[in-house]
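Internal tracking record. Fields below are filled automatically when a chain is submitted to the structure queue. Please do not edit lines marked as system-generated. If the sequence contains nonstandard residues, flag them in the REMARKS field before resubmitting.
Queue: standard
Priority: normal
Entity type: single polypeptide chain
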Amino acid sequence: MKVVATRPSNLEALDRIKEAGHELVVGRDPGSLSRAPFTQGELMELIKDADAILVGQDLITREVMEQATKLKLVIVPFIGTDKIDKESATDVGVMVANSPTPENFLSVAEVTVGQMLNLVKQTKHKEKNLRAGEWGGSVVRGGYLFGKTVGIVGLGRIGRGVAERLAGWDVELLAYDPYVTQETANKVGVTMTDLDTLLADSDIVTLHAVANEETHMMIGEAQFKAMKPSAYFLNLARGELVDEAALHKALKEEWVAGAAMDTFYLEPLPADSPLRDLDPERVMMTPHNASHSNSGRAANLALAIDQIIAFGRGKVPEHVVNTDVILNRRTD
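SYSTEM-GENERATED OUTPUT FOLLOWS
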């Protein structure tokens, strides 16, 4: 079996693929000066005779998969598979898999709670005052998390992790997720509701939905206007969930009190993005890495490699996301 790793984070970890008897081709090693994704033409050439590919943020389109006629598995060493055309993958018989380790999704949940506290306590404003020479006389007091209502949009692994970490904080937890029952939500102390009610009633709204056609720009002007002016908004999911022009307007005109974002519609965030001009004391932005850690990256890659090796032994990878393809997948 030929395995192509387009832009792996650790070459030594990939030795297990070779030790299992497979050919390994590395597209760009971790020391490369270029961080840009491969172009479609470069990808087609790189994976033209691959059986499996381990990809990062490279765009995997129908055309790429159709050209790679031996390709049977596309796998990512993290959770998100939004750069892969999964519908086309299913059509052409290619399995798509991810690597949802606890180190990945629980770390995002931890960061989410941390960002909530930073916003509510107005940590960045207080730090600015200290650096300007001020001390305890500042009128900026911050607020409390206890007694507040937290609305979680998307109650998957990360959303549930946020709810579990807020247990004992004396907050009311609401969630919107059309695919989760109240019975499931009861296990993490959450009340399911509709999106309009969640937005209107929550003091903090945090996004943890997956990116797809149904959720594309699900938060826009109408949704921000429905929120309390005192509320905070967090997006540590995917930039495609939010209309960024509406977000900018909501923050500029103070429809909401503040925000924390780790993901953006265009990544890297363009240098001329209006979001960069927002008040840094009210708006926290991180470059889609707020939850990253060395141990988490290693765990994610290890799980991806485990699945590649299992696939080489004729097994279906554990975390296939387009399960409809399994019975109709490509074979030699």
